[in-house]
């Protein structure tokens, strides 16, 4: 390399940096000039009134300073106004009618937003039903020739599907008597019973700031414990049934308490712990169901336990013609108990304090580690109650490794839909029980896939988790009455051009 070029390189780099700095400074100065020109163009001159007295002429020495100060104040006011408009800080007037404020608060309430989310989900579900219907697809081929056939097919498919969903979940108008027509409602409550119990466990953990996705494992161990007591120890019913239920609750509480203990002592994340314990519980119960002397029925080669003794089976509430059993009453009592625990007890206050801010709760004297253990134990016991309802009420003919039926994961959706509130979870569980009971009727009567029901359920949770989206769809102002607009951003490249 030439030594002269090497000597010139530092000077060349310095010259390049100087030119870049000059170019940047010139660009910034040009942008400021353009901004000043825009601000000057938007200024409005005050028109003096005829009745106003003439202002006192300032001295020539004070005129430049006064003009500069007035110009700066005008710029500041214009920038503040532009910022307020860009951020959408339009506040309601002080003389706004009280009726408007009350109506706005009602429309922004969780109940109304939830109902609107369900409505939107049903509308989208109806669109999917129409798109997958064969008659709609056929009439769409000659839509411009006879559009009435297309819209008639759409209405027939959607109305028929939702009518079948209602009759399969609430009341069947095709039955001869009221006792037969009300049977779908009892099926809905039967399906909802374990969903509510498991949802209470997941929602309780949510309130403490824990994400309990170990419902499957907690249900399996609880069902195994309750089932083992149910078929192994003949006792009077007034002793046998409570002991079997308590055994299932204790097993679920221990399985959930393990998660809380490990999180409190080691700091392990509860999501990882619950996922791993799900697998442990599944393979452990599967092994026990294939092993003679443990849970497998004597003399059988199938992975299934013996049926429950009659003294350990939850009695039917409305008689043998209906599936609804006493587990629904237990779930109602459990919902009331969880509500009292969270809202009326000192333990619930500690749970909510830790869930809101564990550091602040620790400073206030709350034992956060102990709270984690107790919260997960109670959550595991409530989810385990769902397993108890399954083995002692819904399927008392024997325990299998699939007795959870996906309820442990559906409980997460139920808890989210119920906003982790006990009675909200109760209502969400009944809604999802209706979907499960009516989905089969909809498929049998109209040929609509059960997966459509799953899509509707997912959409409900999606819209519940996004209240601003619901407010935007129905043009509902926010609770504070502010108009939310997208902030306006100034494009520097366009200005400089």
UniProtKB/TrEMBL annotation:
Keywords linked to the UniProt accession: Cell membrane, Membrane, Transmembrane, Transmembrane helix
Its cellular-component GO annotations read: plasma membrane
Looking up InterPro entries in the UniProt record yields: ABC_transp_permease
The entry lists its GO molecular-function terms as:
transmembrane transporter activity
Annotated membrane topology: Multi-pass membrane protein
List where Basic and acidic residues composition bias occurs.
Answer: 13-32
CDD domains found in the cross-reference section: TM_PBP1_transp_TpRbsC_like (cd06580)
Composition-biased stretches (Low complexity) = 45-85
The UniProt entry lists the main location of this chain as membrane
The signal peptide, as residue positions, is: none
Q: Where in the cell is it found?
A: Cell membrane
Q: Where is this region: Disordered?
A: 1-96
Query: Which superkingdom does the taxonomy of this entry point to?
Result: Bacteria
Q: Where does the chain cross the membrane?
A: 111-131, 191-213, 245-264, 271-289, 324-342, 372-392, 398-417, 424-442, 454-476
Under what name is this protein listed? ABC transporter permease
- Recite the lineage of the species: Bacteria, Bacillati, Actinomycetota, Actinomycetes, Micrococcales
């Amino acid at each position: 390399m030439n030594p002269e070029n090497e000597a010139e390189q530092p000077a060349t780099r310095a010259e390049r940096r100087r030119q870049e700095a000059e170019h940047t400074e010139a660009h910034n100065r040009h942008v400021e000039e353009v901004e000043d020109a825009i601000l000057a163009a938007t200024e409005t001159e005050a028109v003096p009134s005829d009745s106003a007295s003439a202002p006192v002429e300032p001295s020539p020495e004070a005129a430049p300073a006064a003009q500069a100060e007035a110009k700066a104040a005008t710029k500041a006011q214009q920038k503040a106004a532009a910022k307020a408009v860009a951020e959408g800080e339009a506040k309601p007037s002080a003389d706004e009618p009280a009726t408007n404020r009350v109506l706005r608060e009602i429309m922004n309430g969780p109940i109304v937003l939830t109902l609107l989310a369900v409505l939107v989900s049903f509308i989208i579900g109806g669109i999917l039903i129409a798109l997958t219907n064969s008659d709609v697809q056929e009439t769409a081929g000659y839509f411009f020739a006879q559009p009435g056939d297309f819209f008639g097919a759409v209405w027939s498919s959607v109305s028929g599907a939702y009518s079948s969903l209602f009759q399969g979940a609430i009341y069947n108008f095709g039955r001869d008597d009221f006792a037969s027509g009300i049977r779908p409602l009892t099926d809905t409550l039967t399906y909802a019973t374990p969903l509510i119990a498991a949802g209470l466990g997941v929602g309780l953990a949510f309130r403490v700031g824990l994400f309990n996705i170990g419902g499957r494992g907690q249900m399996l161990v609880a069902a195994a414990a309750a089932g083992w007591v149910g078929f192994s120890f003949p006792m009077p019913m007034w002793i046998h049934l409570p002991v079997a239920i308590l055994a299932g609750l204790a097993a679920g509480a221990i399985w959930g308490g393990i998660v809380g203990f490990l999180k409190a002592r080691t700091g392990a994340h509860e999501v990882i712990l619950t996922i791993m314990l799900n697998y442990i519980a599944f393979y452990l119960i599967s092994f026990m169901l294939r092993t003679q002397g443990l849970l497998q029925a004597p003399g059988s080669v199938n992975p299934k336990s013996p049926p429950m003794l009659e003294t350990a089976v939850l009695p039917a509430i409305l008689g043998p013609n209906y599936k609804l059993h006493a587990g629904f009453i237990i779930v109602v009592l459990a919902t009331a108990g969880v509500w009292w625990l969270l809202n009326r007890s000192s333990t619930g206050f500690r749970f909510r304090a830790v869930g809101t801010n564990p550091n602040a709760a620790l400073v206030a004297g709350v034992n956060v580690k102990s709270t984690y253990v107790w919260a997960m134990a109670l959550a595991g016991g409530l989810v385990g109650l769902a397993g108890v309802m399954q083995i002692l009420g819904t399927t008392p003919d024997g325990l299998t490794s699939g007795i959870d039926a996906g309820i442990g994961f559906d409980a997460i959706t139920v808890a989210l839909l119920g906003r982790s509130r006990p009675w909200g979870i109760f209502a969400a569980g009944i809604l999802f029980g209706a979907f499960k009971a009516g989905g089969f009727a909809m498929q049998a009567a109209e040929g609509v896939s059960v997966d459509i029901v799953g899509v509707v359920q997912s959409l409900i949770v999606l819209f519940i988790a996004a209240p601003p989206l619901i407010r935007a769809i129905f043009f509902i102002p926010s609770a504070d009455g502010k108009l939310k607009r997208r902030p306006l951003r100034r494009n520097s490249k366009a200005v400089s051009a």
